[in-house]
Amino acid sequence: MINLETPRKFRAFVVQANQVADNFLRSNSRKYDLAEHSYPKELDLLASLIDGMSDSGEGQGAGAAGVRRSDDETDGKKAKVRNGTNMSSVLSVIEMCWGDVGLVLSMPRQGLGNSAIASVATDEQLEKYKGTWAAMAITEPSFGSDSAAIKTTAVKDGDHYVLNGEKIFVTSGDRADSVVVWATLDKSLGRAAIKSFVVSKDTPGIRVERLEHKLGIRASDTAVIVLDNCRVHESNLLGSPEIDVKQGFAGVMATFDNTRPLVAGMAVGCARASLEVIRDLLEKAGVEIDYDRPATAQSYAAATFIQMEADWEAALLLTLEAAWLADNLKPNSMEASMAKAKAGRVGNDITLKCVELAGTLGYSETEFLEKWSRDSKILDIFEGTQQIQQLIVARRLLNLSSAQLR
Amino acid sequence: MASRKDPMGIGLAVLNRIASSPAIDRLGLRKQAEKAVYHGTRAGFQAAGGAARTFKRVKGSGKPARQGSSGDSGVFDLTPTEDQQMIVGVVSEFAAEVLRPGAEAAEKTDDTPKEVLAQTSEFGLSLLNVPEALGGLSEERSATTGVLVAEALAYGDMGQAVACLAPSAVATAISLWGSDEQQQTYLPSFTGEDVPAAALVIAEPTPLFDPFTLTTTATKRGSGYVLNGLKSGAVRGTEAELFVVAASLDGTPALFVVEAAAEGVSVAADPSMGLRAAGLTRLKLDEAPAALLGDGTEDDYREAIRLSRLGWSALALGTAKAVLDYTKEYVVGREAFGEPIAHRQSVAFMVANIAIELEGMRLVTLKAASRAEQGQPHAREVALARKLAAEHGMKIGTDGVQLLGGHGFVKEHPVERWYRDLRAVGLMEGAVLV
Fold first, then answer.
1. What is the C-alpha separation between A391 and A402, in angstroms, rounded?
2. CATH architecture of the domain covering A250-398
3. 3-state secondary structure of B157
């Protein structure tokens, strides 16, 4: 039966998440926006709270591990429609990013690397890396979206791999205690030879070179990491060590089907924060927003608000759809990209438009609007840019290969 | 149709209606003749309801029959019920085999063929929101089913879809808000064999039209009312036997029942940019006798406006999907510079964006419908669905033409018609109701 309301079993949890976001994240938001690179120590307490919830099974996928696909909740009732951990993870990230995107990205033990581990690790690896805070290192100075162009090498030496290369834009690269590094086993074999390795930060040969100064999400550290003859045991390789030319990139890319709805959720949460504030400011300024009167017969500000809210709602529901498909073990690669594309662009559009509507008040640091409009930009870039999402959607729709539609 | 449905559900009831239909020969419908009157040549207002029946007044027992709401399932789910899948399956087939092939001919005659309309009344389209007790199909409100049906019809042709749904809008309005007497008087015609042409008329031909600020007025006269004013967007007005009309009563908008055969009711063809097969007309009311629909509360009126807009959003979904499927095929087949134009990002990304925006507006429309059906507040969701349908629906229409280039601009391809039809969404009020 068609129903697009928040699942009943997650409603209380969403309210809790919002309170947490308000008290731990929003309240520290400006502080760490201004003090870039200083460690948000308030998050330690929150992170252990989330760990506790995950351990007791009450977390409802509050953290990065929520993206693991499993049959854990089916209880033999496979045919029944499920609202599972993908849905609750997305709902959680929306609320948390309503609080502060940068701080959510800095959450200990909830890194993108943790999502990668959760997505593709074996059960043994999952146990081995339990409790680690894993960052993700894909991008290099010479490429961004074209992740097949990886130059970082992994050379087999006995039962170890030796990693060499430079990684940039590593979120939490400084604070995390391990990094999931993408490297190629053999550059001549293309995508199929690209593997990911969990590298502990205390391994000799891995070092943080410097931290970036950024437009937004300043609470989150973005590191340059250098791998210089860094030796890791072969059991640190995630997924299969075989180079399967047929399967190609599918293994490592599978992570993205699971994390893209989360990034879409980040944009949805951030944009909702802006919408709430601008609505309040507009109403105090005497603008009335009437859902029944035609937008054309209302003020420009009211009509603009309704347009923004409409696009926001579409982004929200596309995000929930992608999560719902994953929970019900249906393919969601195209829907995940649709959600990321829509949420990424409207999240940015909405937050910028809200600054415009609020004038110098919105532009000033007295309100959060200007901050959210800076934070939202990255959400249309990382985890696959707007253009990459469109490429994925278009290839699927038109049934074209990456050689045909480049 | 008056008997209670057994647990097989309304899907089977619909299938049964089709199977027992004497006009099952769909291939015959495909080759329909262009015999309808060319309304566009008519000039000026003429008395309405030339061949209209007179509705025999039936005294009611007091309490009108109403459908219940379905309640909140508590589970996020995008899967239609089995009943809905069955109905949509049938309607989709009808849209593909009858509406789409007949779209060009229907457009030329500015009307939808009687056979097509007859077929949809045999499906029971006008019965979806009529309570079982009054010969309808369902105990519960089915706004979601209404959305899915309108979407499926519009995938074939929006103009004919609107014509097919127009009597249903009137039947739904009387079911939802009419008095017991009005239900008893009018609904039997809509649940019988010969469903009358009827139109829900809200719009007025003024810029920035706002259905909550009407120029058409209702004035108390004896036990009833008289209406004065000029309305627009009346579907198949020249054929209509019954109108439900929006008018201002002491400054508050309300719906009134107006029989076409009454004095002071005249219609004039109002050929428009698109929706030609819907036979749009203007309706002139000059001291026209009318009855207030039900209690005429402002809440009822607001609900009518919302459910109508929801219907238009649903229609936009179907036509936009038609654009998506058509352009997908075209850009892969059309070659330029030695390869399919789909191999160019500027082309492929347009198609991707059509799909993304369509999916977004579809989900918001479904959310609005499911909230309406569950009896939850839905003003916000309807407004958002309508905004998306207006903005992105039109963008999809214009991108559809753009993707075909000059070929999109000529009538050899249907995309220029979809472009014209999609402009209606976001400005139309009334006409359809889910």
1. 9
2. Up-down Bundle (1.20)
3. coil
Comparing A221-230, B71-80, B352-361, the range with the smallest average pLDDT is B71-80
Residue of A267 and B120 predicted with greater confidence: A267
| Chain A residues within an 8 Å CB radius of B149 | none
Interchain CB contact of B283 with A (< 8 Å): no
Q: What is the CATH superfamily name and number for domain B9-20+33-43+53-71+79-195? A: Acyl-CoA dehydrogenase/oxidase, N-terminal domain (1.10.540.10)
The count of other CB atoms within 10 Å of the CB of residue B222 is 7
**Which one of B77, B82, B332 makes the best mutation probe of the A interface by having the most chain A beta carbons within 10 Å?**
B77
For B299-422, CATH gives: 1.20.140.10
pLDDT, tens only, A325-334? 999 999 999 9
pLDDT at A60: 55
Q: Which helix (H) or strand (E) holds A312?
A: helix A300-327
- Decide if pLDDT at B117 tops 50: yes
Topology annotation, domain B217-297:
Butyryl-CoA Dehydrogenase, subunit A; domain 2 (2.40.110)
Burial class, A1, CB count within 10 angstroms (exposed 0-12 / middle 13-18 / buried 19+): middle
- What is the structure's pLDDT at A35? 96
How far apart, in whole angstroms, are the C-alpha atoms of residue A30 and residue A371? Answer: 8
Residues of chain A contacting residue B211, judged by C-beta atoms under 8 Å apart: 294
Residue A370, C-beta contacts closer than 8 angstroms, at least 6 positions apart: A355, A362, A363, A364
Write out pLDDT tens, residues A77-111. 456 889 999 999 999 999 999 999 999 999 999 88
The domain A133-238 belongs to what CATH superfamily? Butyryl-CoA Dehydrogenase, subunit A, domain 2 (2.40.110.10)
Q: State pLDDT tens for residues A122-181.
A: 999 999 999 999 999 999 999 988 888 999 999 999 999 999 999 999 999 999 999 999
ipTM of predicted assembly, 2 dp: 0.93
**Which residues of A are designated catalytic?**
383
Among candidates B349, B360, B391 on the partner chain, residue whose Cβ is nearest the Cβ of A315: B360
Which residues of chain A have a CB within 8 Å of the CB of B343?
A: 400, 404-406
